[in-house]
Amino acid sequence: MNALAATNRNFKLASKLLGLDSKLEKSLLIPFREIKVECTIPKDDGTLASFVGFRVQHDNARGPMKGGIRYHPEVEPDEVNALAQLMTWKTAVAKIPYGGAKGGIGCDPSKLSISELERLTRVFTQKIHDLIGIHTDVPAPDMGTGPQTMAWILDEYSKFHGYSPAVVTGKPIDLGGSLGRDAATGRGVMFGTEALLNEHGKSISGQRFVIQGFGNVGSWAAKLISEKGGKIVAVSDITGAIKNKDGIDIPSLLNYTREHRGVKGFDGADPIDSNSILVEDCDILIPAALGGVINRENANEIKAKFIIEAANHPTDPDGDETYMQTLEESLSVTLNGFRTYKGLCGRKRR
């Protein structure tokens, strides 16, 4: 199901349960502003490359809009719109004074050099600098971006508006970033997993985990879970997927991915088809990448007893219904990872 259609469907269900007025419902579904910009940069070899960047500002009723910027080949308007809407609901549920926004550029960061990524980020910032700001819209890292990306945005924005360190979050510590910010979401996933397992008389130690996505969230979750005695048997990222039934050496994998920018080629595990990662045999599945990956087609093939949702809307509504029907007699549980500072919401499958 299309990301925006899935998000709208869930919102309309919530709206019905809350008894919202139809006019208010319609108003809340329409974003405050949608921005689409062309970003052309010179590549290292002298050729020109063009990319499309997006920023959707969904709602500012509760305060400045807030949301990440992702770099990924599948970034497109409906996905960004859905993610911006989700940010509005997350900040409201957590009762923090922000609205929702989201942005991204359709690109494969693994195929761009550091200097090319810097040029792309600066051009994107030049195109949107007058529409973001401390009291307007505050970007943050997301899939394919990180502290360095935020530092480039801060520097470029400051050329137009003066030094403004608060214009982004998730920036390097030296520029005023927060200690622990990198690990925050992955740590929230670990805490949520721990709490969920405790409810069922279990602990992380000895449990077998599969993690889809080995970016900031997935890698930190893997590190912290392995330190608690969890066994990570399979992981995947944009470069490929790997498996070791005896458990992957996570410290070694982290070192490898820092050097090679991906899990592909790691010699401490066997390569597997990326499309099979969600249905690998495990106790706990952690989707920590894209949305809508659990759907009607694959939900009934998932073998995990528990699903810890560390991505944004990784289970679409059709997949949710299929999974509940298929595992009606089981103890399977989904935990929605709303990011550490946005709250964690758990629910038990029927």
Feature tags:
single chain; 350 residues; alpha/beta; Rossmann fold; 3 domains; eight-stranded mixed beta sheet; five-stranded mixed beta sheet; 9 helices; 23% strand; disordered C terminus; NAD(P)-bd_dom_sf; Glu_DH
Could you explain how this protein is built, in words?
Residues 178-343 form the Glutamate/phenylalanine/leucine/valine/L-tryptophan dehydrogenase C-terminal domain. Belongs to the Glu/Leu/Phe/Val dehydrogenases family. The active site is at residue 102. It catalyses: L-glutamate + NAD(+) + H2O = 2-oxoglutarate + NH4(+) + NADH + H(+); L-glutamate + NADP(+) + H2O = 2-oxoglutarate + NH4(+) + NADPH + H(+). Keywords: NAD, Nucleotide-binding, Oxidoreductase. With 350 residues, the chain is α/β, with parallel strands linked by helices. The chain has 3 domains: 1-28, no CATH class; 31-172, Rossmann fold (3-Layer(aba) Sandwich); 182-348, Rossmann fold, CATH 3.40.50. The protein is 35% helix and 23% strand. It has an 8-stranded mixed β-sheet. It has a 5-stranded mixed β-sheet with strand order 1-2-4-3-5. A hairpin with a 6-residue loop joins strand 12 (333-337) and strand 13. Helix 6 (181-199) crosses helix 7. It is globular and about 55 Å long. The two termini are 23 Å apart. 45% of the residues are buried. Residues 327-350 have low confidence and may be disordered.
